[in-house]
Amino acid sequence: MKLNVKSMTLRLAELDKYIARLKKAQGLSLEEYEADDFVQGAVERFFQAAIECCLDIAHHIISTYGFRRPSERRDIFIILAEAGYLEESYARDMVEMVQLRNRLVHLYWDIDTQKMHYYLQNDVTLLERFRAFTLAVIEDAHGQH
Question: Among 1.20.120.580, 3.30.1360.10, 1.10.150.20, 1.10.1660.10, what is the CATH number of 5-143?
Answer without folding.
Answer: 1.20.120.580
